[in-house]
Amino acid sequence: MIKRGITHFRNLFYVSSVILFLSACSGPSQSALTAVSGFTEPTATVPVPLADSAITFSPASHDYGTVLVNVGTPTKTFTVLNASAYSLTLTSLLSANANFSIQANQCAGTLESFDSCTFDIQFAPTTSGVLNSLVTLSYTSPSVTGTFSSVLSVTGSSTSLVAFAGLTSVTQVSTTSVKLNWTGIAGVSSYQAYDVTSGRTLISSMLPAGACVGTVCSYVVNGLTPNTTYTYQLRATDLGGVQEGNIISQTVTTQTVATFSTISDISGSENTAFNTANLSCTDAYSNSNLFSIANQSDAALNCALTATTGASAKVSCTPAYKAAAGVHNPWSGTVTVQCVINGSNYSKTFTVNVTNTNRNPAIQLSLGATQTVSAQLPMSLVTATDINTNGTTDIDGDALAFTCSFSGGGFGAGTNCTSLPQSSYSMNAATGVMNWTPSLSAAVGGNATTYAMSISGDDGHGGIGAASFNVTVDPGLALSISAGTTTTTTTQLSWTKITGAANYLIYRLSPFTPLGTVSAGSCAGPCIFTDTGLTAATTYTYRVVALDGGGNTFSTSLDTPITTKNLGSFTAISALAANENANSQTPLMTCTDTYSNTNLFSITAQSDSTANCSLTATTGASAKVSCTPAYHASGGTHANWTDNVTVQCTLNGTNYSRTFAVNVANINRSPVATIGTVTNPSPTATLNTTTFSVTDPDTSGTTDIDGDTLHFSCSYTGGAVGATPTNCASLPGTYSLGATSGLFSWLPSATASTSAGATAYTITITVDDLQVSNHTATAATVINVQPAVLLGAIVNRTFETGKTPLVVGSTFTNTFNNTQQQPSPGVTNMSYTCY
To answer: Residues with Cβ < 8 Å from 185, sequence gap 6 or more?
Structure first.
């Protein structure tokens, strides 16, 4: 509400019983006044110039005191005075803090010079602490250009429903983290941690359940900068969502970083341990360190800590051998060591330089290298390989070069095997295969002579390995093998036992393949061994080695070639065309080989057994496959079908198979018709209905044996048509026949009986499956139609004396006086109705 002043209005002054004369003036300054005789000039209020101070507030400021958050809502009324000489337009009244809201605002629109208005400010805090606001009233004047404003200051304090003591301490100070501690209280929904070092930053909002154990509460602040000062505050929010406003803070400085000294690179050899110097990781607080290896760029470095704490910790590395594919290069890798001290992690990386170490080959010899051989017979091949690879490269991947040396028979140690007394000798330097056929002179003086043999493998990098064996040359010990029964896939080896042999080793050569062992004790006569899984028409070479009781070789057979038999020939079987329920046969089957072996045929598979295929003979050239397919039609479906038959021929122990198709043409079967029980086979014309049904006896229904739906038609002879078959639709009377149900019905009319006695009708029913023309069947029955009851007694009733004429709707009963008049035996009365 704007109130008007009582003493001033612009430049005109009003006083009781006083006349004032306004002298000429300009602007808003007060005009000079001249008193007229006898008048006294009144005391006047002096207006201020138009500026930001043209509006005054009463009171000029206000403190609301302390109230509860979301509970206290005190209100204060303020008076606004236009202390200027201008008429003002009040444009806005705004509070800078929402906790201080403007209510009951009367200060809007025009406020004349020295007029006043009022408004209220309500303090309704929603957060705790000391709160302030500046309330700004903006205004303009028609007389002066520009917008002006006056400001009112208000303040107040608020507190939440909880009384929280704030942050109590900061502990566990490290280089990058600190632990905030406080005592938990009841009625709190969450706690808020703030970094108030510079400004106010929320660090975390925590639920009591996550931060507190009982009343002991804490929160760890991570990610801090070492040797830096931080100030923290902690506030509590009550169950109503109101945060209290304590200003208790704790200041802490993070620790300085530790020093983790550089780890110098180290060098060493493969398979040899070598160490770094002692690791040094310390801080200014004498905290314990904890070392760990965080990463090895190559696991083959095999680096580990000799100790995990203290000043004696070192890194020890024992690199694995790393040569591969014959490459012997030095190599290196990096190791990263982590030091954890006072909760902070520090890392140092160094290089491990490794010198390659060459490993010597380790030579092994094939089974039976030590052996006894007859002069002029080849010894069993001896193959040298590396133990680690079972091949001709060593563990480092170096290709081995093999050489042979010997002593014995008058030769000194280390003599090259090219000097062996020989019919033939070879040493393959790349494959390690050694072969020797001793000459007669190898049995020195005609006596058994032993030669100490050694095969060496050289890796070309200074590494040499060797393995030794003995070969005893006997001047008169021989072992020969021969081929027994041989098929396309097997062969039987036989040999005569020799004295002194305990076991025999059997080998297939090219490639060299150990096949098995035959005990000499198991040979009742000649020793026998069967090799299986061979390929037809292929030559294989075999060797038998005799071992004594100590496992030493003392005789070796000559390498004996054996060729397996050729495969037989089973000619293709052409597809067979057949009809259902009819026998068809394939041509004669041919299955032969070049050895006149007997064949054996069998049927091993039929895709549809209802083709009923079998062999007419199981051996010889007369064998055929004979098939008599069963009927296949079902549900009215008449499709041709196929059976795939597989015939196997076994010839000389080998199986051969041929598959051919039996293409079967569907054969439609004719339906069969039978007439069921006939109701009223001798009906009286106009009186009795004759009925019966026609079915197929194979199904007892209206489909035939193939599942085809039957269609019924009817013809008859007799009566007026005589012997001429006529469609039953011409039967005198009421007739019907279900075309697919086979139900026959006929009520003869009076004309159906052509004589005083019964008239015979032969009814013929024809059924048709509609699949193939002429696939029909018939059934017939005779129906004897009795003449209708004579109505002569009533024909001229209207002319008989004493009889009442018949009229439409009248009914009377006629009595038959004798049996001749009765329409059927025993019927003596009939009632008639006139229509």
So the answer is: 162, 163, 164, 165, 215, 236
